[in-house]
Amino acid sequence: MSGNNGVPGLTVVAKASMILDAFAGNRIAMSLSELARATGLPSSTVHRIARELVAWGGLERTDRGDYAVGIRLWEIAARSRRSYGLRETAMPFLQGLFDLTRQHVQLAVLDGTDALLVEKISAARAVETVGRVGGRLPLHASAVGKALLASAPAGVQSRVLAHPLPAYTPHTLTSPRVLRRELAETRRRGFALATEEMSLGAVSCAALVPGPSQEVVAAVSVVLPAGDGPGRKWSTAVLAAAFGIARALAQQRPVAAISARLTGSSAPGSPRERTGAPPRG
């Protein structure tokens, strides 16, 4: 289905995706004109599609009249095959690791050529980092990224190593040859390290979480101040957390379905709820 808005070759879905993709980085709220500039779409097109997204819940309006990502997208994302049940299963082990370190504990999955953070626990005075839930970390400059990259399919590794590796600090590995050696060492020792490669003053240690069939499901990491010592000193604790998550996933019972959107007939206090009658369809 193509939209009749002067942008030939783009479907309505593609245009809506461009609008949602505009909320990247630190963009929390954007005006109509900012969305138009970010997407390159005509203002009239952005206005029409944004209005429909607001009606659906994918976007919402702020007090200033700007557009922001709507809670409905979070509701849909919670059903993702990649994270459904993973975060709940991993949380006790992430919490245990956090209790030991009182810094940052992260859970990430591989998405394309990035590490996508799906969970993070942090102390109020933890070392400053750039990662946040729903954010992405580069595979070559973060411990959680290196862990995922070291076990990624050859095609993913080739794509990452074939492009320039951005330097985020003076310590970032930007040489493909050096990174290859680092990935080989990561596979040998079973955990990945990053020493002030993503953020100055921060070190990190990460380990893989294998699934029931030994496929890589995720990676767990801790991020601590560089002054507390090398990240490898937490490798045993990180490996134990990763192993615990993997074992819990292997023993996991079927996850109960997420409840459907409440309707008038199934809202609390309705006749159906009071009588205990099961909801239909």
From TrEMBL:
<dbReference type="InterPro" id="IPR014757">
    <property type="entry name" value="Tscrpt_reg_IclR_C"/>
</dbReference>
<dbReference type="InterPro" id="IPR036388">
    <property type="entry name" value="WH-like_DNA-bd_sf"/>
</dbReference>
<dbReference type="InterPro" id="IPR036390">
    <property type="entry name" value="WH_DNA-bd_sf"/>
</dbReference>
<dbReference type="InterPro" id="IPR029016">
    <property type="entry name" value="GAF-like_dom_sf"/>
</dbReference>
<protein>
    <submittedName>
        <fullName>IclR family transcriptional regulator</fullName>
    </submittedName>
</protein>
<dbReference type="Pfam" id="PF01614">
    <property type="entry name" value="IclR_C"/>
</dbReference>
<keyword id="KW-0804">Transcription</keyword>
<dbReference type="GO" id="GO:0045892">
    <property type="term" value="P:negative regulation of DNA-templated transcription"/>
</dbReference>
<dbReference type="GO" id="GO:0003700">
    <property type="term" value="F:DNA-binding transcription factor activity"/>
</dbReference>
<dbReference type="Pfam" id="PF09339">
    <property type="entry name" value="HTH_IclR"/>
</dbReference>
<dbReference type="InterPro" id="IPR050707">
    <property type="entry name" value="HTH_MetabolicPath_Reg"/>
</dbReference>
<dbReference type="InterPro" id="IPR005471">
    <property type="entry name" value="Tscrpt_reg_IclR_N"/>
</dbReference>
<feature type="domain" description="HTH iclR-type">
    <location>
        <begin position="10"/>
        <end position="71"/>
    </location>
</feature>
<keyword id="KW-0238">DNA-binding</keyword>
<feature type="region of interest" description="Disordered">
    <location>
        <begin position="260"/>
        <end position="281"/>
    </location>
</feature>
<dbReference type="GO" id="GO:0003677">
    <property type="term" value="F:DNA binding"/>
</dbReference>
<feature type="domain" description="IclR-ED">
    <location>
        <begin position="72"/>
        <end position="251"/>
    </location>
</feature>
<keyword id="KW-0805">Transcription regulation</keyword>
